[in-house]
């Protein structure tokens, strides 16, 4: 097992990783930019190292600084969390060259899944159902028109290097296609330095359903069920739940086994998420994330399995002791991502939290690095914390969530808490009837309701 883990991240996930390390008896090193000197994970870590000024590229993305921090502290492993360097294959290789373990998948798997065209080809080869579309990259308008005519409009142009919904454009008809292609290409070039794009059938009313996997890199892999992340704003997840309100146990077992088998065939190591769009009873692969995800706690709440603990143990070369039959799903869990944003304009609202009170009681979990007096810096994402609620049934979970949201106090800054207080009382949500476009429509139709 590792002796000392350097946590190459910040915010709530740095704290989450630190907690897992403490429970495993592993020493921790926090790294931080000058803007994060007061962060909770820095206070609680055994050691901390300042790695640079506030801009992420000079601190959390600064590989030489991170290597120096490992060297100074003698850390033998690095946990990248999510975002920043978590899906950077080169970083994983550089660490390996320095005899430091990267707590994540093999570099080759990060690389394949980081290129969405390669990822889709690999998924298809491994027997995972994919969205109909081009076989690879699209190189000309003529090719795009031909593929679009085959799969039928509307179509979606997507960036091979995509992430965060950038470089994605819908073409409703043949007339829009050339414009969509050039816009997606230039957006992709600007965001990722790579203008490769591909074409996919645009699904009109799908749900976003993703399967959590865990593998030991030696041919053993299991699934931990699905998460439904259909409530999105600008392709960003807002609310996640497990199990999905529309998936039956038989469907879960089937798609779960399809994905677990693919992971066994790849010798996948660590945690990963295979994301699907789900429409009319069919699953369509869109991408795989080769890291721990923001929404992992909902899976932990319904399975009782500590995903970060498992992730660390398999990265250290321990076998995966869990068999598929050991994974038992109990009850229902929902996560709300509480952001420091205005609840109607979604304008970021960094600043000092003057009063802070988190809800408690049975079935309530708050993963957050915030505290009273903490100042949310303007340089990073706006996540204040995640409220995760568990109940025996979905109805009990919603009831408990209503109560917990009413208890949650974050003063001094704007947060999206009022939006969640409205959502949790909305009929479509109570009935579990929403697709990936539902929230955008709701926000457009009910501007007055957004503030609750
Ligand atoms: P990114 O990596 O940029 O987040 P994804 O491929 O994961 O891109 O897609 C993000 C979101 O975009 C999905 O959750 C879904 O809302 C929407 N989306 C992606 N592909 C399609 C599609 N073929 N049809 C309809 N919506 C899609």
Give unreliable regions as ranges. none
* Helix/strand class: alpha+beta
The strand line-up of the biggest sheet is 13-12-9-10-11-14-19-17
Count of helix runs: 15
Would you give an account of this structure?
The protein has 452 residues and is an alpha+beta fold. The chain folds into 3 domains: 4-103, Rossmann fold, CATH 3.40.50.20; 132-201, Dna Ligase, domain 1 (2-Layer Sandwich); 207-449, D-amino Acid Aminotransferase, Chain A, domain 1. The chain has 15 helices and 20 strands. The protein has helices at residues 11-24, 40-44, 63-73, 89-97, 107-114, 116-125, 141-151, 174-192, 249-266, 296-303, 307-315, 394-407, 417-423, 427-430, 438-445; strands at 4-7, 27-33, 47-52, 77-79, 101-102, 155-159, 169-171, 197-201, 207-216, 221-233, 236-242, 269-279, 282-289, 332-339, 351-352, 355-357, 364-368, 375-376, 383-391, 409-411. An 8-stranded antiparallel beta sheet has the order 13-12-9-10-11-14-19-17, sandwiched between helices. The chain has a 5-stranded parallel beta sheet with strand order 3-2-1-4-5. It has a 3-stranded antiparallel beta sheet with strand order 7-6-8, with helices on one face. Strand 12 and strand 13 (282-289) form a beta hairpin. Helix 4 (89-97) packs antiparallel against helix 5 (107-114) and helix 7 (141-151) packs across helix 8 (174-192). It is globular and about 60 Å long. The mean pLDDT is 96. The structure holds adenosine-5'-diphosphate. Residues 131, 156, 162-165, 200-203, 206, 208, 232, 235, 275, 277, 286-287, 436 line the site of adenosine-5'-diphosphate.
């Amino acid at each position: 097992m590792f002796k000392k883990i350097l946590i190459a991240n910040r915010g709530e996930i740095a704290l989450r990783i630190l907690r897992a390390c403490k429970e495993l008896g592993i020493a921790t090193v926090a790294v931080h930019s000058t803007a994060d000197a007061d962060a909770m994970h820095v206070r609680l870590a055994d050691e901390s190292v300042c790695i640079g000024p506030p801009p992420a590229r000079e601190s959390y993305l600064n590989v030489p600084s991170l290597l120096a921090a490992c060297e100074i502290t003698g850390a033998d492993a690095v946990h990248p969390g999510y975002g920043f360097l978590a899906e950077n294959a080169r970083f994983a290789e550089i660490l390996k060259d320095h005899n430091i373990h990267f707590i994540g998948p093999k570099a080759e798997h990060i690389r394949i899944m980081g290129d969405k065209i390669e990822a889709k080809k690999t998924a298809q080869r491994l027997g995972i159902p994919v969205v109909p579309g081009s076989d690879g990259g699209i190189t000309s308008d003529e090719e795009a028109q031909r593929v679009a005519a085959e799969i039928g409009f509307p179509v979606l142009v997507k960036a091979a290097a995509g992430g965060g919904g950038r470089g994605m454009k819908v073409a409703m008809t043949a007339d829009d296609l050339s414009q969509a292609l050039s816009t997606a290409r230039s957006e992709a070039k600007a965001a990722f330095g790579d203008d490769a794009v591909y074409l996919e059938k645009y699904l009109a009313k799908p749900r976003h359903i993703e399967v959590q996997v865990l593998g030991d890199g030696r041919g053993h892999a299991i699934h931990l069920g699905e998460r439904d992340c259909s409530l999105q704003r600008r392709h960003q997840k807002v609310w996640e739940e497990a199990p999905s309100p529309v998936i039956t146990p038989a469907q879960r077992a089937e798609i779960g086994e399809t994905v677990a088998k693919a992971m066994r065939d790849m010798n996948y190591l660590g945690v990963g998420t295979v994301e699907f769009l789900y429409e009319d009873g069919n699953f369509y692969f869109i991408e795989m994330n080769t890291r721990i995800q923001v929404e992992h706690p909902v899976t932990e709440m319904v399975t009782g399995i500590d995903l970060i603990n498992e992730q660390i143990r398999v990265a250290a070369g321990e076998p995966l002791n869990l068999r598929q039959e050991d994974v038992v799903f109990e009850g229902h869990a929902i996560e709300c991502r509480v952001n420091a944003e205005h609840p109607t304009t979604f304008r970021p609202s960094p600043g000092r939290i003057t009063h802070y009170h988190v809800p408690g009681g049975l079935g309530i979990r708050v993963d957050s690095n915030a505290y009273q007096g903490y100042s949310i810096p303007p340089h990073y994402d706006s996540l204040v914390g995640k409220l995760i609620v568990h109940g025996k049934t979905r109805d009990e979970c919603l009831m408990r969530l209503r109560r917990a949201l009413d208890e949650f106090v974050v003063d001094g800054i704007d947060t999206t808490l009022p939006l969640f207080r409205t959502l949790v009382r909305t009929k479509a949500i109570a009935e579990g009837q929403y697709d990936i476009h539902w929230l955008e429509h709701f926000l457009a139709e009910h501007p007055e309701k957004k503030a609750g």
